[in-house]
């Protein structure tokens, strides 16, 4: 105990008992250190009927495809349900990972542990093997992917991952089938910008050609000197040209090709419709994989929710891509799964509902099972074209001889 000695003069009078007690109390108060109070870290409370959704997108940086069309599509969905006061509420947080694989892992961990997300939507290139797959297993919450990957259930993290895009092998099979049907197998020019998405697409296409007993061409890499001129020279004698990776970076090469040339130019599934429109007269030489549900096959309007989405998106941003539609569907699927059990919105129960139901979206009817987490049916993937003659519409190509 801390004590202080009080001095007194010989002539001072003895203090009375009240003054003594007051002096002792003041002395103890001055000498006693107050204990440190540790406040517990506040835990976010769950709002009733609310699902926390984190969305990881490339909203800046050089990586393609840009996540902006996906964000725009999700904003259309959020705006459309504002008037529905009975809806399950989705608290959506958009996170820019700026083209960084390291930031994808960091933000996934942050969403799961700090933000207490119930579901995470990832709209950037990822591999389910390695660090990303490990992070998903640790998070142990549903992760919806909008870009093509392999069947998630073939990987350790697959039970938590749900793929909304067609698998990489389905996309490659669609391209190869059309090339063979057109009799345009040789020569094929295969071009790659060696981005993550381009490498994935290129390897899947090469594997499909080998599976069919065909010799795949050596890729022309955009990183090589005079790559654009090399591509143009090779394309002049080719029957088909396959451009791996998002289409935005290939605009100058495509515009340099004659619009009357015989070869068909195949773009990526990740093609944005606005990138095709920017090709002007060269739009007639390109085709790309996408959903038949978003293609206008006749003069009749698209039905129901698809028409509403296409109209709302087009009014703000131009014609939507299949990828943008998948982002819109991601929120629709999450809300639908939540509606099935509004009092049980934890990540575990949401995951079980996702893998045991079929969800009708604007892109396709997604169907998941405990053994299959790739929900896009292969039959709904077709090759699309842009038709300026039809007033500016995305249409399905005319059937080839093999389709009849």
Describe, in plain words, how this protein is organized in 3D:
- The protein has 404 residues and is an alpha/beta fold.
- The protein has 2 domains: 50-166 and 303-380, Rossmann fold (3-Layer(aba) Sandwich); 169-294 and 382-403, Rossmann fold (3-Layer(aba) Sandwich).
- It has 12 helices and 14 strands.
- The longest helix has 18 residues, at 322-339.
- The protein is globular, with a radius of gyration of 30 Å.
- Mean pLDDT is 85; it is low at 1-31, 37-43 and 399-404.
What helical percentage do the residues reach? 25-40%
Q: Biggest sheet: strands side by side, in what order? A: 7-6-8-9-10-13-14
- Strand segment tally: 14
Would you identify the CATH H-level superfamily of the largest domain?
Answer: Response regulator
Low-confidence stretches: 1-31, 37-43, 399-404
When the domains are counted, the total is 2
The CATH architecture term of the largest domain is: 3-Layer(aba) Sandwich
CATH topology of the largest domain: Rossmann fold
3D shape = globular
CATH class of the largest domain: Alpha Beta
Question: Which structural class do the helices and strands define?
Answer: alpha/beta
The span between the termini is 99 Å
What is the percentage of strand-forming residues?
15-25%
H/E element string?
A: HEHEHEHEEHEHEHEHEHEHHHEEEE
- Main sheet summary: 7 strands, mixed
Q: What do the pLDDT scores average to? A: 85
Question: What is Rg?
Answer: 30 Å
How many DSSP helices?
12
């Amino acid at each position: 105990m801390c004590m202080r000695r009080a001095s007194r003069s010989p002539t001072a009078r003895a203090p009375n008992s009240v003054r003594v007690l007051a002096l002792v109390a003041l002395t103890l108060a001055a000498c006693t250190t107050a204990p440190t109070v540790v406040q517990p870290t506040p835990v976010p409370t769950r709002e009733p009927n609310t699902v926390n959704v984190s969305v990881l997108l490339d909203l800046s940086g050089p990586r393609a495809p840009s996540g902006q069309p996906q964000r725009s599509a999700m904003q259309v969905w959020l705006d459309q349900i504002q008037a529905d006061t009975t809806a399950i509420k989705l608290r959506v947080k958009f996170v820019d990972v700026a083209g960084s694989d390291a930031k994808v892992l960091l933000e996934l961990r942050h969403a799961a542990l700090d933000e207490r997300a119930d579901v995470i939507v990832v709209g950037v290139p990822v591999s389910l093997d390695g660090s990303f797959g490990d992070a998903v297993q640790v998070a142990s919450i549903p992760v919806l992917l909008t870009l093509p990957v392999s069947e998630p259930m073939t990987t350790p993290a697959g039970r938590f991952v749900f793929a909304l895009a067609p698998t990489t092998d389905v996309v490659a099979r669609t391209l190869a089938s059309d090339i063979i049907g057109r009799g345009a197998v040789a020569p094929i020019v295969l071009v790659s910008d060696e981005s993550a998405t381009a490498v994935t697409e290129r390897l899947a296409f090469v594997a499909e050609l080998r599976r069919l007993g065909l010799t795949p061409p050596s890729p022309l890499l955009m990183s090589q000197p005079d790559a654009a001129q090399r591509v143009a020279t090779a394309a002049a004698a080719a029957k088909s040209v396959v451009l791996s990776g998002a289409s935005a970076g290939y605009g100058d090469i495509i515009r340099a090709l004659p619009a009357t040339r015989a070869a068909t130019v195949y773009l990526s599934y990740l093609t944005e419709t606005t990138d095709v429109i920017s090709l002007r007269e060269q739009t007639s030489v390109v085709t790309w994989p996408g959903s038949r549900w978003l293609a206008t096959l006749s003069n009749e309007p698209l039905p129901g929710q698809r028409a509403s989405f296409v109209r709302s998106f087009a009014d703000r941003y131009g014609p939507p891509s299949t990828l943008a539609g998948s982002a819109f569907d991601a929120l629709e699927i999450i809300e639908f799964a939540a509606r099935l059990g509004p009092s049980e919105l934890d990540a575990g129960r949401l995951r079980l509902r996702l893998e045991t139901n079929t969800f009708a979206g604007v892109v396709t009817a997604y169907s998941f099972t405990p053994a299959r987490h790739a929900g896009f049916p292969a039959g709904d993937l077709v090759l699309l074209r842009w038709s300026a003659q039809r007033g500016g519409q995305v249409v399905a190509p005319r059937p080839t001889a093999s389709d009849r």
